[in-house]
UniProtKB/TrEMBL annotation:
Domain OVATE: 33-96
Protein name from the UniProt record: Transcription repressor
PANTHER family the record matches: TRANSCRIPTION REPRESSOR OFP14, TRANSCRIPTION REPRESSOR OFP7-RELATED
Biological source species: Phtheirospermum japonicum
GO cellular component, one term: nucleus
């Protein structure tokens, strides 16, 4: 069992962290930061919200296929010990987006959205 106060996490964020231990270039124009987090849920939630805000601002729509790819990216970049924080943050973000879906248009994902992930395994 991992205590929230002692969990490490990888997040993608636009601001630099003084706690960053390493920077590793990653595909698709983002940087993965290895950080210590006393509150991994909050950090994952904030990072995901920033990514979604940038995407919605750019396109004007919520792209559900992008959100699925974003989730897989967080899961692929992080240790299994962080999955509960990632999934909780992602679900909370989706709930908020669904509640606000009347004000923000949504793009529905294609049925084959997760096919690439199955090919990797």
């Amino acid at each position: 069992m991992v205590d929230e106060a002692s969990s490490s996490s990888l997040t993608s964020a636009s601001e630099e962290s003084s706690e960053a231990e390493a920077k590793n270039p990653a595909p698709d124009d983002f940087i993965a930061l290895l950080t210590y987090s006393p509150s991994p849920y909050d950090d994952f939630r904030r990072s995901m919200q920033e990514m979604v805000d940038a995407r919605v601002e750019h396109n004007g729509k919520v792209d559900w296929e992008f959100l699925e790819e974003l989730l897989f990216c967080y899961l692929d970049l992080n240790n299994k010990k962080s999955y509960r924080y990632i999934l909780r943050a992602f679900v909370d973000l989706i709930v908020l987006l669904r509640e606000n879906s009347g004000t923000v248009p949504a793009i529905r994902p294609s049925l084959g959205g997760r096919g690439w992930r199955k090919q990797l395994n």
